């Protein structure tokens, strides 16, 4: 007989409530990264792919729930969301998206040898410097959020995207 441990359905602690100033600073870092991406001309849809891919690599259910919903609200297809984990094996992603995803994976998995020169060079072929910086910041911010959500065992499911205007 095989036994399984039920999934955790309760949060471990309320990080936001216990350290509201840190939570506010994280929120401002996120907003600053979004502003930088917007100013650099990086598409919001591409940023959601970055957030989803980093969250997949980190195993963050809370952020995956949030960002797949946000991506759908921005018009992303189910096919691309479902195949994002295997983006290298699909024809569904543009060269620009592929460069951003490779850079995101390198930033997320630094223990695998840092960000390789060839990954950075591929990103520079399709992004200018401010855009590369924006993608890196987006990856850094979502990695920080993944770590807080996983550590606090934030429960996925309740998040709903803001209505589109």
Average pLDDT level: 94
Give, in order, the helices and strands. HHHHHHHH
Strand content: under 5%
User: Roughly how many Å apart are the termini?
Assistant: 53 Å
Question: How many helices does DSSP assign?
Answer: 8
Low-confidence stretches: none
Radius of gyration: 16 Å
Major sheet = none
* Share in helix: 55-70%
Shape: globular
Number of strands: 0
Briefly note the structural class of the backbone: mainly alpha
Give the key terms:
165 residues, mainly alpha
How is the topology of this model organized?
Elements (H helix, E strand, L loop, with lengths): L14 H4 L1 H21 L3 H15 L2 H13 L4 H6 L11 H14 L8 H10 L2 H24 L13
Detailed description of the structure:
This protein has 165 residues and is mostly helical. Helix content is 65%, strand content 0%. It is built from eight helices and no strands. The longest helix is centred in the last third of the chain and has 24 residues, at 129-152. The chain is globular, with a radius of gyration of 16 Å. The mean pLDDT is 94.
Question: What's this, in brief?
Answer:
This protein is mainly alpha-helical and 165 residues long. The chain has helices at residues 15-18, 20-40, 44-58, 61-73, 78-83, 95-108, 117-126, 129-152.
């Amino acid at each position: 007989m095989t036994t399984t441990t039920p999934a955790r359905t309760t949060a471990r602690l309320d990080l936001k409530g216990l350290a509201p100033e840190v939570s506010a600073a994280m929120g401002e870092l996120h907003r600053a990264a979004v502003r930088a991406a917007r100013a650099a001309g990086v598409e919001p849809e591409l940023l959601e792919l970055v957030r989803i891919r980093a969250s997949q690599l980190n195993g963050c259910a809370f952020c995956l729930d949030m960002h797949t919903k946000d991506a759908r609200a921005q018009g992303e297809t189910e096919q691309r969301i479902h195949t994002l984990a295997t983006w290298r094996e699909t024809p569904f992603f543009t060269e620009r998206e592929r460069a951003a995803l490779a850079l995101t994976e390198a930033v997320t998995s630094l223990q695998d040898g840092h960000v390789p020169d060839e990954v950075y060079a591929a990103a520079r072929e399709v992004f200018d410097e401010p855009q590369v910086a924006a993608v890196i910041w987006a990856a850094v911010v979502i990695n920080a959020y993944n770590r807080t959500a996983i550590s606090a065992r934030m429960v996925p499911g309740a998040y709903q995207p803001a209505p589109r205007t």
